[in-house]
Write a structure and sequence with these properties.
The chain has 322 residues and is an alpha/beta fold. It has one domain: Aldolase class I (TIM Barrel), CATH 3.20.20. The protein is 46% helix and 10% strand. The chain has twelve helices and eight strands. It has an eight-stranded parallel sheet with strand order 7-6-5-4-3-2-1-8. Helix 6 links the parallel strand 3 and strand 4. It is globular and about 60 Å long. The termini are far apart.
Length: 322
Amino acid sequence: MLLCVTSQSPPLTALADVTASDAALRRFLHGLPGVDGVGLEARAASLGTRSVKTTAKAYAIDLAISMIDLTTLEGADTPGKVRSLSAKGMTPDPTDRGTPSVAAICVYPDMAAVAKEALGTSGVRVASVATAFPAGRAALPVKLADTRDAVAAGADEIDMVIDRGAFLSGRYLEVFEEIRAVKEVCGTARLKVIFETGELSTYDNIRRVSWLAMLAGADFVKTSTGKVAVNATPANTLLLMEAVRDFRAATGVQVGVKPAGGIRTTKDAIKYLVMVNETLGDDWLSNEWFRFGASSLLNDLLMQRQKLRTGRYSGPDYVTVD
């Protein structure tokens, strides 16, 4: 089955039949157009060469800061570290109150309440990984309990991981139903679905899982956990962008994109913002619809921002250590 993406495409309810059975979902996903990997990588590389003028760079830096999910997901995380990270997220540069806050602080579920209290009424959201992050290998009741705990602790957003083993084994409806069940437990919390694109083997699989997740109700599609060898790349992120663009054209439903892992420099961030602008347009150029999953990116953005503001670099000691 080939999906025809036009301005007259049916609303999401018209696609309900494609999830009625495992066979129907398989036919739909395998009927999606194949990905031209060479062309995809060439488009991503071309977008990465676009130059940005100084005035646009200043705007892009502030926009990138506002899109960061400032993250700590370590076994050694402590309440003190989460409070410190929350303070940094609210006020990234204490010497310049014009610096925007980040979008969210991303933590494990047991640290969600700590982050919620620290962030108070700042407007910075609490994001929490759940569903047996990062492997996603647990029974569904365990994953749902994990999600409920995070939401009860104050998480505004849930970053779940799919069962890659189930997906790669072709158990598409099982993955669909798991995402849908987690979405229901989220309540008003927004759901980001992590694919771990570096483990999905092919670009066709990345396109298929993107559509599967969006059909199941994902609010965001996310490349990676940041815990494997291959995380966000320009090509796999561009593929997610093209998927959400086509999904909105087909259904009228807008879904966000979050590349995560390996995005460390201002240059990297601006390349991704150019990609958003050229592929998705203004509708996605806000932290409601685009995020960076990062821990060290903020420091480089702050140093580059200081350079534009004062004409000099302050060096790495200018910013606090994550």
